[in-house]
Amino acid sequence: MPILNKDMALCISLSGRPSNLGTRFHNFLYDELGLNFAYKAFRTDDIEGAIRGVRALGIRGCSVSMPFKEAVIPLIDELEESAAAIESVNTIVNDDGRLIASNTDYEAVASLIGSHGLDPAVPVVVRGSGGMAKAVVAAFRAAGFVELTVLARNREAGTALARKYGYRWTAQEPAPAPAVLVNVTPIGMAGPDADALSFSEQQLSAALTVFDVVAFPAETPLVRAARAAGVPVISGSEVVALQAARQFERYTGVRLSAEQIERASVFSRQE
Question: Which residues form the catalytic set?
């Protein structure tokens, strides 16, 4: 990293529960590419004050995580299509005091749907109804998927999400069938549900593709079970690396190669 100096551009993240993934990803690439940038994660409970600081201090870029992805919308000046489509923000660029917001989670999921060759004629089951689920469901709708079921315990959130995009909601796991299974819940993440599966083994055995957006650990129980069953997998590590790369490009103007993204992703996961 270059020595801190008055001309250094600062990028930050704002979250209720910050991690080192983004900090390590971005700073690794700043160092590798010799860019006069630094990245720092912050925890805040004052999102309005934090966004005023972004504008007032000339902070170049700001990643936004839960629980602020919707709360920041009234605080910025322009919504790009990726954020407007799902009414959720995860990236802010400060362009000489004008704050422009986008959602690179949505962009990453949409890109992975295409690069993995998922067939729009295949049914999809999305488990979860939170902010990331909105990005996932919207990306499948934009890709032309006609049959999608939102599987969520929260009836109000689940039905609202499904209806917004013309899909159906259920609280009960559908019968096993050839489908794309997508986990957008914390199941499989470090914590009380670290060893749990978000879909039954019967569902997994019938699946055509399993997509787990949980980014840490990279090999969740769902991913391991799908690989063991010979089912193609899209992992959360792919999502987080690709969305971070899209943020990096917006902040710096530098387009990254697949090899650079992979190196930064591997580095970001080291203890």
Answer: 69
Q: Name residues whose C-beta falls within 8 Å of residue 156's C-beta, 6 or more positions apart in sequence.
A: none
Owner of token pair 């590590």: 237
* Residue 32 token pair: 């590798």
Q: What region, left, alpha or beta, does residue 253 occupy, with left being phi > 0 and alpha being psi -120 to 50 degrees? A: left
- The pTM score is 0.91
Q: Match 């796991």 to its residue by tokens.
A: 173
Q: Which domains does the chain carry?
A: 9-103+238-268 (3.40.50.10860), 117-231 (3.40.50.720)
pLDDT at 131: 82
How many CB atoms sit inside 10 A of residue 4's CB?
Answer: 9
How far is Cα 214 from Cα 21, in angstroms, rounded to an integer?
A: 13
Q: Which range (68-77, 99-108, 218-227) has the least confidence? A: 218-227
How does the average pLDDT of the chain come out, rounded? Answer: 94
Phi, psi of 92 (to 5 degrees): -125, 130
- Alpha helices by DSSP H, listed for the chain, are 21-33, 47-57, 81-84, 104-115, 131-142, 155-164, 201-206, 221-228, 236-252, 258-268
